[in-house]
Design a protein that fits this description.
3 copies of one chain form a homotrimer.
Chain A lengths: L4 E2 H8 L2 E3 L5 E2 L1 E2 L9 E4 L6 H4 L6 E4 L10 E4 L3 H12 L8 E2 L4 E2 L4 E2 L4 E2 L4 E2 L4 E2 L4 E2 L4 E2 L4 E2 L4 E2 L4 E2 L3 E3 L4 E2 L4 E2 L6 E4 L2 E4 L6 E3 L4 E2 L4 E2 L7 E3 L4 E2 L4 E2 L4 E2 L4 E2 L4 E2 L4 E2 L4 E2 L4 E2 L4 E2 L3 E3 L4 E2 L7 E4 L5 E2 H12 L1 H20 L1
Parallel strand pairs in A: 4-5, 5-6, 6-7, 8-11, 9-12, 10-13, 11-14, 12-15, 13-16, 14-17, 15-18, 16-19, 17-20, 18-21, 19-24, 20-25, 21-26, 24-27, 25-28, 26-29, 27-30, 28-31, 29-32, 30-33, 31-34, 32-35, 33-36, 34-37, 35-38, 37-39
Antiparallel strand pairs in A: 1-3, 2-7, 22-23
């Protein structure tokens, strides 16, 4: 099932200037090191410049500045990484999903399903659900009552939407995602925790991607909101009433506690944790595993943690960390003593 | 599908004293800022006291001390947050689940399913399973052989119980939860890791809630135990042979390693990690992302981590952390030298 | 459904020397403390030596050095923990899965399914899939087009394999696992994030175990690779193009970012995070919750973090951590001043 293009077609597809034979056929994309004679490759990171000299690729997506170093055909563009990103979609062999409703699906008679939508095997669609044109629902998904799914949105296998969830257009929701489970809300009472029913839903914008096994809880009173163009990786937890601003990206295993608002174009790196009821400004970048316990009102890069060390060295430093306040007191005492002597 | 109550009915439902017209109709619950004239609101956190003056709510659940500041009808109670919690259930529009076994479910003939239980589409119920009265099993759940589910317990869509799992009464298990997968147990051998079959099960008490995509492993020999009234958030990992005491709460992304025992009324905040074979006393509160590597024998609040900083500032401090033991040595040398001079 | 062996059979099964009556019947395995007169127990950790004296077990798997202290029958072996591990499989009562394809499964006509494979209720198997002899696919699993599953591999309930995933022989994949979702790859563009289609798959070796709700993403161009004998716990996230070396083990909630290569026989403890594009040498042990931000080229144990403290003590030390660079500067100033005085 090889996909074949000519270099001429590739150049046209990504608006690159071809230095080479437009009739050359190519069947794949690869890294500079792994590419063979029928592959297109790309130089997007100068770290890999050394691999350019020896690449066996048919052609390389490359900036004008490096064309002279390219030993094979060049596809010249100012943005080779973006061109590569666009080209990947030409080579994707994602299985087609059959249009229509699979006979093993259970669809409530009151649901509205567009004629060209694809509803996979074993899918369950509740009362009053609305599924727009071009939507794909993978096998085993469960769509709760009164949920709404926008045009061209795709759900991979085994996704759960609880009731009254609204997804925008062109979302891509990966397998195992759960949207709209109850937020974690309980009031203390003499008899233990009194559950607070979660009455809000979840609303996503357009062009949102949500990674495998990620969870986004429904709001307590108002909905949890995911902005346009937001990209969320696997196993991320977004608690009730969070708001994620347009075009922000959240990497794997990050967790955002309840009612926190994240601005636009932020990046939250892997396994970072953001406490509840905070505000994160636009264009904030939080580094991996960082612990965010206060609002970040200025754009910039923020970090926490102590870095990795060999165990014995780490152990000695941790002991000192536990004495750090005392150590600071000892330094202050030395300073006071030195000053006294100078004066005395 | 609006739900309408009068303020008189609301006051009676939560045992509040109404200062206002008992005939006033209300159709929703909202925050002080978002409430309109047909909503009930509440003042539970003094932080929001400023919003009281301008609220457009029909009535506010409020402590006696603040009644004078309330510009609208007052529902006076000593515990407004708890009253709000109770009221949420009156306004919940959770879809009803049909009683009986859905025709697409697969139920082993040896399973005992109460007549008024609800078994959703695509559910699979194994041999010897016992499902009590009032239980709801959402679409796509899989219940392993010889598992037992207590009265009124609800499983949302796509929950897995492995074999020989016992759930108490009135549990609420959210979508994607997996209970009873093998604990992570292997013995080193010359041929690599030798798997240890996990022979224990999992037992939960009554009134337990477990959040979306959380995992609770079966015990190695004896069961993993979750106490009465325990509340667990999303994406929590509880390893084999843990015991969680009554009325403890564990927030999202926390992880508890094998054989650790957590006391009663503890709260474990988000993304905290607790190492294996530890004992955590009753009434311990572990803060978010804390790393617990030793038993905590006294009640109280415990924390770890270094807090968030702008990257450059963090970087400088981390370098110093890595030299902390040496720094402490330098301070000790200065102290010794100063003492010597004093004596000399 | 008790499983009964004689001590003679047990001794033969694990190659132990029996000091006791070979005809004694046993029906279970238990810890020294919990064992009754029909249970076998084991002493693998000297911590439990005190419990040996009072055990009520029928017999104890034990090293030669401790035989004299054993108050009951002894099953003498140099490796009691390994013997216990092997014995657990004799006492496991895992439900048998029916051979053949369940009538509620949906199997594409082009898929090849071995005659003795077990395909559970509601399973969906795509086009061109190949399922080898002895494979078990639990209820609700979804196997994407052109995926390949090796001999004797078992998938628990509700596992997703995307398209073009290859699993080796004797894998055990727990419930909720998602293998082959898109890696988190986007190129910045003036219009927001441009998705990079993920064209690689995932390949696992033989004897791999993957815990509940773990996610392993497909590669961008080449596959993500999991080596032979690798054991992965619950809720682990392995990003695109990672490579995990043979016989490495990764505990719950750990996350490995994209393109990182982990060597052989490594252990990554719970909730550790490893940044992207790093290399971890063979026989590296990363401790729990450690933050790995650089390659680790030497075998050994590595840690990070600050350890748990009572809140007030922690708070004071964190304030000092934030001033650590300044504190170091103050110490240097004191040293300079002291040296000046000495010289002066």
């Amino acid at each position: 099932m090889a996909i074949t293009f000519t270099l001429g077609e590739i150049a046209a597809a990504v608006d690159a200037r071809l230095i080479g034979d437009p009739a050359t056929p190519v069947t794949g994309l690869q890294t500079l090191a792994a590419a063979g004679g029928s592959d297109v490759s790309f130089l997007a990171n100068k770290r890999y410049r050394a691999e350019l000299a020896t690449t066996a690729a048919a052609a390389v997506l490359i900036e004008p500045a490096f064309v002279d170093e390219c030993p094979v055909a060049a596809l010249v563009t100012d943005t080779p990484y973006l061109a590569y990103a666009r080209l990947t979609h030409r080579f994707e062999q994602r299985p087609a999903v059959a249009k229509g409703v699979h006979p093993t699906a259970t669809v409530d008679p009151s649901a509205e399903v567009a004629a060209d939508a694809s509803i996979g095997p074993g899918v369950v669609i509740g009362a009053g659900v609305s599924i727009a044109a071009g939507v794909e629902i993978g096998p085993g998904c469960v769509i709760g009552d009164h949920s709404v799914i926008g045009e061209q949105t795709r759900l991979a296998a085994r996704v759960t939407l609880y009731h009254a969830i609204t997804l925008g257009r062109r979302n891509l929701i990966h397998s195992g995602v759960v949207i709209g489970a109850d937020g974690f809300g309980f009031a203390p009472s003499p008899e233990g925790w009194q559950k607070i029913a979660q009455l809000g839903g979840v609303v996503t914008g357009d062009d949102v991607e949500i990674g495998a096994n990620t969870t986004i809880d429904r709001g307590a009173l108002e909905p949890t909101r995911i902005g346009n163009g937001v990209k969320i990786d696997n196993q991320v937890q977004i608690a009730h009433n969070c708001e994620i601003g347009d075009n922000s990206a959240i990497a794997g295993c990050a967790g955002i506690a309840g009612s926190t608002k994240i601005g636009q174009r932020c990046t939250i790196a892997g396994a970072a944790g953001i406490a509840g009821h905070l505000e994160i400004a636009d264009d904030v970048h939080v580094s991996g595993m960082a612990m965010v316990t206060n609002s970040l009102n200025e754009k910039g890069i923020y970090s926490s943690g102590t870095g990795i060390l060999p165990y014995q060295q780490w152990k000695r430093n941790v002991v000192r960390f536990r004495q750090l306040d005392k150590l600071a007191g000892r330094v202050a005492a030395l300073e006071a003593s030195a000053e006294k002597k100078q004066k005395g």
